[in-house]
Amino acid sequence: MKKFIITLFIINFIVLPLFMVKAYSADIGYLSYIEIVLSTGKLVRDFTPEELAKLKKATEKPTMLGLNVVGECRAVPASYISSILVSYENAGTTDIEFSKTIQVETNNKITFSSSASESKTVAAEYKKIKGQIAKKIDLDYKQSYEKSVKEKKEVKIKVEANSKMILYLTGDLLVYNGAFSQYICFVKTVSAPYEFIVLTSQYERLEKAKINEDLVI
User: Fold this and answer.
1) ∠ CA(148), CA(118), CA(80), 5° rounding?
2) Of 83, 86, 87, 84, nearest to 100 (Cα)?
């Protein structure tokens, strides 16, 4: 994490002019997060073709009707950085103060993704499939959890002379992923990976350092 934040500083303060505030777009989903670090395992997007093929094969057991699900990550804790809100470098001799309005997630939002969404065969049953997978992996899933609830906050920032700062959104989440196959009359209609992300917390973090120093977290 230390190297990552240091890299953010280098990128932002080499390409940005002095005394310029850079605002970044808000979070638009976990797949757009800058970084997600799992305590174990990995996200579906990081699976190799061989790992995906092995997972899907494990689910391919013909059944009269329903889903076969094989889990890879089960409630794996992870930390993340979703977006950079403000970066600033003050090379002057006086302190600078300003305010920034931000939005922070306040609910345990559950996000679901699967390449099965691209299949016309399951398009009409996509929401139903999400619920069925959640039930099989013991995840308390409700439609309302898909809705993002955000709280606006006013953050006051002071950038001391000859220093730099970065304000970003971070927090914790849980990862559930694996693969599933759907069967109707013993005929496989779809086989694909799935992933649930449960956002459990989100908050802003402000990091500061002298212009000629590395940030230590």
Assistant:
1) 40
2) 86
